[in-house]
Design brief:
mainly beta; binds FE2/S2 (inorganic) cluster; Rieske Iron-sulfur Protein; four-stranded antiparallel beta sheet
Length: about 100
């Protein structure tokens, strides 16, 4: 496990998402309803559009390109099903958000 700092917890408020470049990748930090904090590969698995351009409503992330929807709790596709975001382990330490890019769920 090699957790790396991505940003401060204050950079992504509840109900928001932000993409950050780290380790040669774009990591999407999502802070959903009730403080559900997740880290995903920031590129849509459908046709590689940046997910940060989409919308976050509750715990559903909608890609703006073709409106695929994902449950941020699991990263699983809601509409359509059968797809999944790449989920990175995430933790908060001393007010910083850390992500392990080597581990993908
Ligand atoms: S690229 Fe995201 S839904 Fe098509």
């Amino acid at each position: 496990m090699a957790f790396q700092r991505v940003c401060s917890i204050d950079d992504v408020w509840e109900g928001e998402m932000q993409a950050f470049p780290i380790g040669g990748k774009q990591v999407l930090i999502v802070n959903g309803d009730g403080g559900v904090l997740r880290a995903f590969d920031a590129i849509c698995p459908h046709q590689e559009y940046p997910l940060v351009e989409g919308a976050l409503e509750g715990n559903i992330l909608t890609c703006s390109m073709h409106l695929w929807q994902f449950d941020i709790g699991s990263g699983e596709g809601v509409n359509p099903t059968g797809c999944k975001l790449k989920v990175y382990p995430i933790k908060v330490e001393n007010g910083d958000i850390l992500v392990d890019l080597e581990m993908v769920a």
